[in-house]
Automatic annotation (TrEMBL):
<keyword id="KW-0012">Acyltransferase</keyword>
<dbReference type="GO" id="GO:0006633">
    <property type="term" value="P:fatty acid biosynthetic process"/>
</dbReference>
<dbReference type="Pfam" id="PF08545">
    <property type="entry name" value="ACP_syn_III"/>
</dbReference>
<feature type="domain" description="Beta-ketoacyl-[acyl-carrier-protein] synthase III N-terminal">
    <location>
        <begin position="108"/>
        <end position="174"/>
    </location>
</feature>
<dbReference type="GO" id="GO:0004315">
    <property type="term" value="F:3-oxoacyl-[acyl-carrier-protein] synthase activity"/>
</dbReference>
<dbReference type="InterPro" id="IPR016039">
    <property type="entry name" value="Thiolase-like"/>
</dbReference>
<protein>
    <recommendedName>
        <fullName>3-oxoacyl-ACP synthase</fullName>
    </recommendedName>
</protein>
<dbReference type="InterPro" id="IPR013747">
    <property type="entry name" value="ACP_syn_III_C"/>
</dbReference>
<feature type="domain" description="Beta-ketoacyl-[acyl-carrier-protein] synthase III C-terminal">
    <location>
        <begin position="246"/>
        <end position="337"/>
    </location>
</feature>
<dbReference type="GO" id="GO:0044550">
    <property type="term" value="P:secondary metabolite biosynthetic process"/>
</dbReference>
<dbReference type="Pfam" id="PF08541">
    <property type="entry name" value="ACP_syn_III_C"/>
</dbReference>
<dbReference type="InterPro" id="IPR013751">
    <property type="entry name" value="ACP_syn_III_N"/>
</dbReference>
<keyword id="KW-0808">Transferase</keyword>
Length: 347
């Protein structure tokens, strides 16, 4: 979707304290061989800080940076991949109550790790379709620090990280212009994240730990028994959505200065994103994101904010945001940086 007069007017994030992977190995949480293979140096861990509280903090930073009044905002989208608080409760309205405090829609977006970009796409669509308010707020947050999640071993592809991020999206100006955004999916791949787990009762309700490795092993066992798993080449989908969004933005890949991508371990990142897109670690955000971990719904926002506030991109630079989620879903966006950060916003 090509967007006209849609801007990122504010951005904010919360990164809790980092735990080094070297320390995790010493404490017996993480295997040394996995640490070396992943290339991940540290992971952000929030402890007992609720994800919605981190989202509130990030949102208030984004709102302040946007320069927009609360009355300018007409909708809030909150994305998360993990449990946020009490069952049958709305974290989106909690965040709204503690930020804008307005009687506007507050909507949850569950799209796995693509959730942040999916919420941004919905917010842009809302701004284009409904002129009654000039701004929309997107928040995203997760805290995986619960007994049913072993962040260090739940997947061989990544180590789960806790974080929050927020983006104020506006018509009429901002620090960056959203040129285009879009997503695709390959629903045949949904089984890869389901494995042999039953649909009912949900595993979390019976104390079943989150274990992506077990689910992948189930699919390998099925394959060995002659049941071909629904596997396509993931990289093809990443390339397809990227090329589509670039075309809509009227930007060539050579004109992309930097790429904000997921915080997977090196092998998975290279196989799923870097190699298919034909980029190296320096053009991406590897040196930054390897100190954060796989932050899921927030990581492309974290990457964009880091690139901008650290001065690695500036006015006229185009940045590609690319991510994926369960489903399988893949998404991308192209933004053009318009202004340098003010000193007060630098991290």
């Amino acid at each position: 979707m090509r967007t006209e007069d849609v801007y990122l007017s504010g951005i904010g994030s919360v990164l809790p304290d980092r735990v080094s992977t070297e320390s995790a190995v010493t404490r017996g949480w993480y295997d040394e061989a996995d640490r070396e293979a992943s290339g991940i140096l540290s992971v952000t861990v929030a402890g007992s800080t609720p994800a919605p509280d981190m989202a509130v903090e990030a949102a208030n930073v984004a709102i302040r940076r946007s320069g927009r009044a609360a009355n300018d905002f007409g909708v809030l989208f909150h994305s998360h991949a993990h449990h946020q608080g009490p069952d049958a409760w709305s974290p989106a309205h909690y965040i709204l109550n503690n930020t804008l405090d307005r009687p506007i829609p507050a909507i949850e977006v569950k799209q796995g790790c693509l959730g942040g970009l999916a919420a941004l796409e919905l917010a842009a669509t809302r701004l284009l379709a409904n002129p009654s308010h000039p701004s929309a707020l997107v928040t995203a947050a997760d805290n995986f620090s619960i007994p049913l999640v072993d962040r260090w071993r739940t997947s061989s592809a990544f180590v789960l990280a806790d974080s929050a991020a927020a983006v104020a999206l506006s018509r009429g100006g901002g620090f960056a212009r959203l040129l285009a955004i879009g997503s695709v999916s390959d629903a045949r791949m949904e089984a890869l994240d389901r494995g042999g787990d039953p649909l009912f009762p949900p595993g979390v309700t019976v104390g079943e730990p989150l274990d992506f490795t077990k689910r992948r092993e189930y699919m390998r066992e099925q394959w060995a028994q002659g049941v071909t798993p629904p596997i396509g080449y993931f990289g093809d989908k990443i390339v397809a959505v990227t090329e589509s969004v670039l075309k809509e933005a009227d930007v060539t890949f050579d004109e992309i200065a930097r790429v904000a991508h997921p915080g997977f371990g090196w092998e998975s990142l290279e196989t799923m994103f870097l190699d298919p897109l034909g980029i190296d670690a320096d053009r991406g955000i590897w040196d930054y994101i390897r100190k954060v971990g796989h932050a899921g719904v927030t990581e492309v926002f974290l990457g964009l904010e880091h690139l901008w506030t650290s001065g690695q991109v500036g006015p006229g630079d185009r940045v590609l945001l690319v991510s994926s989620g369960a489903g399988a879903s893949m998404g991308a966006a192209v933004v053009e940086i318009l202004t340098a950060p003010q000193p007060a916003t630098e991290n």
